[in-house]
Design a protein that fits this description.
Chain lengths: ~350, ~290
């Protein structure tokens, strides 16, 4: 006998209670504090801020805690919160040239003014599990753990001085904002960069990797990678001038790519650009490679049909909140549609059977 | 939850959505781009419908939410609860008592009236999407009213299967102009798209809103020699005996036994209350 599937509401409530219990885990183990997550899982916090498009380490840490460490779920929490925030105004563009760098490297020159500063990097660590970390204790204090130089010149500017690299024209126009206007294609570079910096790290990484493996190869060198803090300034209309309202940590990557030349332009290097909230090197470099691949038309290159050259493809699939929502929605009931498919398949099969029987009889 | 504005979205966002809705009503079947917001439920779970409902709701409204025709499916419960908390509006399970109905995958069996708004949740608003994945191309095709590709697809279905192999999200032409995806409703529901109610379609992830104003001509695509045919399971509801409603097939035992019940749970309950019964109605209910 059919029992109507009632009680969805109670089931949902119970599921939520169970989820909260699972999130907490064994109650005899100490509860994680937001400060612990912010301080000790800071790269995770950075990723949530970058893809959540909201710079707030405490909220990002809270989101990670609430999401049980599921990064995409944490990013989703931040995005949903972000929507509810009113827009008070716009900051002035940040000057990454004036960044107080913790880390700054160039792969194109052995040494550069300002020096190569490794900073806190995993790069040359041996990936051996450090069992000492399982015990408690404070690490040794790092030497020179302060920004080295107040200001470091940009590596690409040295190339630019000799006209060896394509110049980026400065612009005063307000860039479009994909969170306030519907996406339209072709999107143009400012929107592309916004979509990439918010895009899923894994997706952008894989797209970048595909260019390195030959799908629209563009021979990138890391011209410069810098990580550090920049002040954020905002013009207050009542004051008539800009005041500093805070500072953010950013990772910026400029790649120097394969030169190109045309009838009118002599051969020169080209650029790709990546800028991401927090210390997020993998993402910034990936972004720069994909940005460069998407510039094929502007730089007069051929469309070789590679996925990373396809703006609509890259931009419409880079957002993990959109992707995961749509992917996971197939968990929702679809029995009405499935029923209509069942009927159609039965009908087509019945028709085919009839034809077969008729053929056999003849 | 008084920390949020009425129906969650701020007034500016609602105004932006209302403008898109008005444009959609003015150009029936045309997909209006809108700056869809991130909602506190996932994309693909009704964010478009929720935004459209939020923009339509007033404090005096009575809201009904259905998924697969039923008020008690989990996501319908979740969305109804969202508006109960953020808008404080009255809710109902009765089609007749609702002023705004948000739906996923069904149109209620009971004919709607001029006083009602039906809001659809739409996953992929573009009827041509699976024929041409590029938005830049499909927008051009709509602009030029170039629907040859769709007719070829339907023709190839007939050539291959002897019938048009689309059973839900069956494409329609609205007011002789735009080919439109009616969202994944079974094609059984297509005739109900010509309605007295305003029908609004919201696709959050794809950032599109479109509409069918009341009493608009909506024609399901077909060929003269293969006319459109709304189909349902060849059975009657085992609870209310209805032969004219869309039915869910429910497996009831390990031996492949099954029963059919109305997918529209409110409609079925009303019929049972009025004394109708089906093959498996409990004796005491008769």
């Amino acid at each position: 006998m059919y029992v109507a599937v009632k009680g969805g509401e109670r089931a949902i409530e119970n599921a939520h209670t169970w989820l909260a219990e699972e999130r907490r885990g064994d109650p005899t183990v100490a509860d994680l504090s937001i400060a612990q997550i912010r301080e000790q899982l800071s790269l995770g916090v950075n990723r949530v801020m970058a893809e959540g498009s909201l710079y707030d380490p405490d909220l990002a840490a809270l989101a990670i805690k609430q999401a049980r460490g599921d990064m995409i779920e944490a990013i989703f929490l931040i995005r949903a919160y972000r929507t509810t925030l009113p827009r008070i105004g716009h900051a002035e563009p940040v000057d990454t040239g004036a960044m107080a760098c913790d880390r700054r490297i160039s792969a194109t020159f052995k040494d550069v003014p300002g020096g190569q500063v490794l900073g806190p990097t995993f790069d040359y660590t041996h990936r051996l599990l450090d069992f000492a970390l399982a015990a408690e204790g404070l690490p040794a204090e790092a030497e020179g753990a302060q920004p080295v130089e107040p200001e470091m010149p940009r590596v690409t500017d040295f190339l630019n001085r000799d006209g060896l690299i394509q110049t980026e024209a400065p612009g005063d126009e307000t860039p479009p904002d994909m969170t306030r206007a519907p996406m339209e294609y072709p999107a143009g570079r400012p929107l592309r960069l916004q979509a990439l910096t918010r895009g899923d790290e894994g997706f952008v990484l894989s797209m970048a990797y595909s260019t390195q493996r030959g799908y629209a190869k563009n021979h990138p060198f890391v011209g410069e990678l810098r990580v550090g803090t920049v002040p954020v300034e905002m013009e207050i209309p009542e004051l008539g001038f800009s005041v500093e309202i805070g500072e953010v940590t950013l990772t910026e990557c400029e790649t120097v790519n394969q030169f190109s030349g045309s009838k009118t332009e002599p051969a020169q290097f080209t650029r790709g650009y990546g800028l991401v909230f927090g210390h997020s090197e993998r993402k910034a470099i990936s972004m720069a490679l994909v940005d460069r691949a998407l510039r094929w038309e502007e730089l007069g290159e051929d469309d070789v049909g590679a996925p990373a050259q396809d703006e609509e493809f890259v931009l419409s699939h880079a957002d993990n909140i959109q992707a995961t929502g749509f992917l996971e929605h197939i968990k929702l009931p679809h029995y009405v549609d499935f029923q209509s498919e069942l009927e159609l398949v039965r009908k087509i099969r019945a028709a085919a059977q009839e034809t077969e029987l008729k053929a056999a009889a003849e | 939850m008084n920390d949020y504005n009425f129906a969650y979205l701020d007034e500016q966002t609602k105004r932006m959505i209302r403008r898109a809705i008005l444009k959609g009503v003015a150009i029936p079947g045309y997909q209006v781009p809108f700056a869809s917001r991130e909602m506190p439920m996932p994309y693909g779970w009704g964010t478009g419908g929720v935004q459209v409902s939020a923009a339509c709701l007033t404090p005096e409204d009575t809201l009904k939410v259905i998924d697969q025709g039923a008020d008690d499916t989990t996501n319908a419960v979740s969305i109804r609860k969202f508006f109960e908390t953020t808008a404080g509006v009255a809710t109902t399970e009765h089609t007749r008592g609702a002023t705004v109905i948000q739906t996923r995958h069904r149109i209620p069996e009971e004919p709607l009236t001029e006083d009602q708004i039906l809001v659809y949740q739409v996953p992929i608003p573009e009827p041509l999407r699976f024929l041409e994945p590029r938005e830049t191309e499909t927008r051009k095709m709509h602009a030029l009213e170039d629907y040859g590709l769709m007719h070829v697809k339907l023709y190839e279905d007939i050539a291959r299967h002897g019938a048009i192999a689309t059973s839900y999200a069956y494409p329609v032409k609205v007011e002789d102009r735009y080919v439109m995806d009616p969202s994944p409703i079974p094609k059984f529901d297509n005739p109900k798209l010509e309605s007295a109610a305003i029908q609004l379609f919201g696709a959050g992830r794809e950032q599109r809103i479109y509409a069918i104003p009341p009493h608009t001509r909506v024609v399901s695509l077909d060929f003269e020699d293969h006319p459109f045919e709304p189909t349902k399971a060849d059975a009657a509801c085992d609870l209310c005996g209805a032969e004219h409603t869309y039915l869910d097939e429910v497996i009831i035992d390990d031996a492949g036994g099954r029963m059919f019940v109305c997918s529209d749970t409110d409609y079925c309950a009303q019929r049972q209350a009025a004394g109708h019964h089906g093959r498996l109605s409990p004796e005491d209910a008769a």
